[in-house]
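Take one record.
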Amino acid sequence: MKLSQFGKKFCAPTGIVELMDDLGTALNENPDMIFMGGGNPGRIEEAEAIFKARLETVLSDPNQLHSLMGIYQSPQGDKVFREQMAGLLKKEFGWDLSERNIAISNGSQSAFFILYNMLAGTTDDGDNRSIHLPLAPEYIGYGDIGLSQDFFTATQPEIEFLEDNLFKYHVDFSRLNVTSQTAALCVSRPTNPTGNVLTDDEVEHLDELAQAADIPLIIDGAYGLPFPGILFNDAKPHWNSNTVLVLSLSKLGLPGVRTGIIVAREDVIQAYSNANTVVNLACGNLGPTLTRELFRNGEILRLSNNVVRPFYKQRAQQAVAWFRGALGKLPYRIHSPEGAIFLWLWFEGLPITSQELYERLKRRGVLIVPGHNFFPGMDTGWQHQQECIRVSYAQEDSTVKRGIDIIAQEVAKAYSA
């Protein structure tokens, strides 16, 4: 089969393809595998009970059931859902928006494919514009999403060394260079893979730079604010007319419903909706139908703040303690666990690559994600990229503990060799 340039790019094996293939194998075909790789959320009984009750209500009402299964929504998505969400955001945070500022996608990955390629790539005048990532490492799923070459640029972070084998990345504004070729700034908050939460000051500074350059600031809030709220320090939600905020229902416990949410200026939403119609025709109804009542009564924020956040905070603290016990005096550091559902481990001077460590762990029945996949837009000359791994702590405690012990064993073998 002869492939086009598009085919060669998007049909090739990549980091995100490997990650999702491992996820499907581990969760569906090989249940004995210790899965500490992808972003599958943990099971939270209280959240599942809420979604189950909502689904039962929908199934018992013929009109709601028909709306769920029997009709297409508009290109922007379920209007009632968008109205309920806009009302909540306006009431709770004072954001000046309506349902016209909100669009739905079939998962946030789909949303980013459209948003990024709307903004970056080859322009009519022949320029090649790129998405700039102010704080690498960044999400593995961004790396191969662009339709053109040199789609991303990135800024290497400042590293702050903390006590107790912790460290933290900061945006290095002295290196951050916004040029005429920069189409947008994009950050995830909390950052996937590290769990870093950009400070409010960092976000405000990035917003100022974006507005001065007349480009949008895109915030990937899949793990963040205002929901599902998986962050463990003080931070406030950010949105204004120059911000494109991308949210998701996945980390609340609904990854299978594939519902992403874009909050942006009306002209951005209109452009996105037009493109989404071409690519997806319409969005799925299940996520909005299940959760519109939670937005109407504000339950979505209670669920996020009082149930989801404490669940992951406890898991993070426990995983850090287990790693400290297992790794002992090995040369390791853990990024300060400020949010998301991962720990980011840095093994200084690791004698093997992160890919080789991944392969060794996979043979031992443990799946992690090698760190070099998380630096889109950067060259490969920084050795730090080969010394890090991302580890999920979302699975059952006993599973995570077994995985941590095996990771420590393999890291010790690598150093001893």
User: Anything to note?
Assistant: Residues 299-327 form the longest helix (29 residues). The radius of gyration is 21 Å. The chain has two domains: 5-44+303-416, 48-300. The chain has a mean pLDDT of 92.
